[in-house]
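Worked example (supplementary).
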Amino acid sequence: MKLGLKTIIAAAVAASFGGAAMADGSLTAVSWGGAYTKSQVEAYHKPFTAKTGINVVSEDYNGGIAEVKAQVEAGNVTWDIIDVELSDAVRGCDEGIFEPIDPAILPPAPDGTPATEDFLPGTLVECGVATIVWSTIFAYDKSKLPEGPTSLADFFDLEKFPGKRGLRKTPKANLEMALIADGVAPGEVYELLGTPEGIDRAFAKLDTIKDEVVWWEAGAQPPQLLADGEVVMTTAYNGRIFNAVAAEGKPFEIVWDGQVWDLDLWAIPKGAPNMDNAIEFLKFSTDTQRLADQAKWIAYGPARKSSAPLVGKYNDGKIDMGPQMPTSPDNLKTAIQNDFEFWADNQDQLNERFNAWLAG
Amino acid sequence: MSGTGSGKSSTFVEFVNVQKSYDGETLVVKNLNLQIQRGEFLTMLGPSGSGKTTTLMMLAGFEMATHGDILLDGQPINHVPPHKRGIGMVFQNYALFPHMTVAENLAFPLEVRGMGQAEREEKVQRVLDMVELGSFGARMPAQLSGGQQQRVAVARALVFDPELVLMDEPLGALDKNLREQMQYEIKHIHENLGVTVVYVTHDQSEALTMSDRIAVFNDGVIQQLAAPAVLYEKPENAFCAAFIGENNKLNGTVTSATKTSVKVKLETGETVTALPVNISGKKGETTTLSLRPERVTVNPRSKSLPNMFEGIVQEVIYLGDHIRTRLDIAGHDDFIVKIPNSAAHPALNPGTKVKVGWSAEDCRALDAVASA
Amino acid sequence: MSDVTADAGPSGPLLAADGTPLKKKLAQTTRQAKIRALLLTAPLVVFLLAGFVFPIGQMLWRSIHNPAFSDVLPNLAVALKTWDGGGVPGEDIFEIAVADLKQSREDRSIGRAATRVNYELPGSRSLFTSTARKVNKIDGPPYKEKLIELDKDWDDPVLWSILKRVSNDYTASFYLSAVDRKYDVNGNIVSEAEVQQIYVKLFMRTFWMSALITFLCFLLAFPVSYLLSVLPLRTSNLLMILVLLPFWTSLLVRTTAWIAMLQSEGVVNDILVTTGLVGDENRAQLIYNQTGTIIAMTHILLPFMILPLYSVMKTIPPSYMRAARSLGANSLTAFRRVYFPQTVPGIAAGTLLVFILSIGFYITPALVGGQDGQMISNLIAFHMQSSLNWSLAAALGGILLASVLILYWLYNKLVGVDNLKFG
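After joint prediction of all chains, the assembly is encoded as:
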């Protein structure tokens, strides 16, 4: 309802000012809000506007392709470029919602390496260009648990660490983490999840903490839950926890064991009203320097190899960002990458089972 | 009429020094003392706000007396809840239960008394027949005319054989013809059953038609309690005289008085001889003279009438059985005279002078009310 | 008094003074009034058609009609319809399949068909998307062999029997899903695996929670409405504003206010802890569960019960109760036999209103329902917004709509719609 109205208003505004806006040069970039959008505004939007004079209008959403699908099907697209998860980028591409992007148009690395080789493997897909690597980790409040948990097994151990747990209200990442906590090697997680026994095992593990779980949906919630003392530990996006620590001085600690990392990509909806501006913005924001710059503002790893050496310190000039990245070698030891194809195949069934499990 | 041993003269309902206040500041009923005889048809008559309905509600048990006792058959009933008083009641808008049929409405008081079904049905049929609605038992109240609903309401108040029936302006919602017809029906039922009826109305003709006695209420006080004829013929104060029937008022001061006669000087200087009723007789006392319009003689032949005046005809209205004439007499231009429509009645036209006269007995000297 | 209507003579139609039949004359004189009435209601009728009937019709249509497969792979769909089924089809159908897959690759539309098949055969989505990416490698016969070489799942008879089923645009699958049933490979209707069953349970929960909320609303509203109806107008108007004030406040604001009240660090728990009724470590879980949903929804829906009750009670004169009492009924009997039956139209309207609103409630359970306080509309929203299975959402909505209609029909039977008083 609310989103629908927003779309209608946006459409009405676009209809009344659209002509002028296009002539001036502007585009609407849609992202996840909060600290993450701020990092994009600082690293991409502001320098882009300074360079081209094209105004970037920033809008928030909560993920998923439902809204953009509705816009495309209604033939009334108001968004120009969208920050999406990998599985949505692939699905939106398969359903013809997103424009294909030729990687040849992307800027090469400063040393001339073409983009296709400079981007990390798997970060360029038919309709999306990755900007960052983010991760689902779990975190706790050090001031309350000085002898904090160190592994996912601890997260599921209610005897050692009594208290509420925060989990995202979706099977994604939760099932993987449950299996790792249950002793499954990270490399075998998806293979096991492909079998009924594996799924049963993951749900059985989740069952052990079900009564103590507080479910969250928006990325801004977990740091809040921790700060309010509603939970003693929670899964979260690593950047959100980092920002709560770095910018707000919260005594939170990230546990990297069994992190499930994923990509965020730019995708351009079919029929975007400012298509040319969007492509210009895409090229600008995915160059080596821009991706490195973003790491000044949030602890997400750049998707280009050439950006890594350029990553320096947090914008306060003190915290060294390297070790804060999901892609830092220390953090990757027991990590797994979200398998978008597994989820594309199984999410309908697993969502249903997850909902049934929740309601039961 | 009643065959009970105690007879008609025994007191059935008694109010002793009853007071009622709703707000703790003013009394709606001021020190009421009233005895109602067994089998009597007593009407409480008065304008709205006079305390008559409050008195009825206290008797029914829906209002508590602030002070004083109410006795029913010698027993104080102040603390007896309404459903244990055994008093039948007819309400202003009938209060027939809209979700029950006529028969169910009538059976209700019998049912809550635990009467068996067969007996119930028989009684209901009998009372339906009594009000001539024998075949209407299965109807819903909304399917009846106003008069029929009225009769069902009366039947319901009587079906459980109460000794006392209260009626709170029961005919107020009916049109004039039906009202008159129902007055007689209720009167007949009362006579046939011998129940005691306390009837509240603000309609004086209704009160006069039906009652054994009428209690005239005003301002929380019974102004006069008397049989209809007495009330009309011999009102004891200016309020009763004015409230019941039509009435010419003449204000003046007492110049001399005996026990049977009083001379009153009007504001315009004329002197009227009247009957002292509600005055002390002191010289200089102000009084209101009350004179019924039909007791005034036009062009009196006899010189024996003590009061003879000349007036100017202001208005003549032909009403069939009588002619209503408005005169200007002694500075009052609202002096009404009713002339019977006999063959010999004088032909009057506005503007003509006419002589009128009346006897001293017909002209009652009452307490003074402010002249209009 | 009770005149019987005179029997009309059978001697033919009555004529007006000018000789035209009376009925025709009457129709002529009232025609203008009819046209005017029609014109006055026309905007509303058009609005209802466009804003209500059409979308609901479309929703119901979508729940049984899903052409995703035949849109994307049209020739394959036609071929499968004539295929006799059983086993894996022959080279001819594979040739068509390869051609359609190639076309879908060009249109970038395979996702829609893959999603459709995936509903029936979980896990098959990537078979289509990955095959579509590679299908251009097949440049000539034998198509069957080459396609199976790309992915051996193409050799699965189960896949083909399901493809034959989805080649039909009309399907009852979504309604089956909505009641935790599905087709097995042979086309028989069977129950979903127990761990996957959710919708029947959720429908049941929605109904019983709505019934409980309705009952609670009734319990709370009845005395309040009674008080409102007997108090002097000035006082009752003031109280009525207190009833309506939350009514005028945004639903979202009221729900969030309940979060502040009921959460474990919230007002209610603080009071319980301060008064020593509950220990600080045992704070009551009043929100993010069924309790929270029921408390918040009862509060939010209370005015919908109070208003019809009040409007009915207002019309019941006090003389009915007095009459009953004077006729010998004690106050309880008088209430039970005389007052209460007369409030039934208000109760009927109030409960119908609250119940129907409850079963479609969405925002409040979403915000305070936690895991066991969710209702069916939350799942509908989930399928609309997250899983994008609009057909299933439509089927769930269709069942909800049907149950409301059945409920209304039952009410009509029991209470009579003419007796409903909404205020």
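Two points are worth noting when inspecting this output. The first strand of chain C starts at residue 181 and ends at 183. Residues 1-9 of chain C have pLDDT under 50 and may be disordered.
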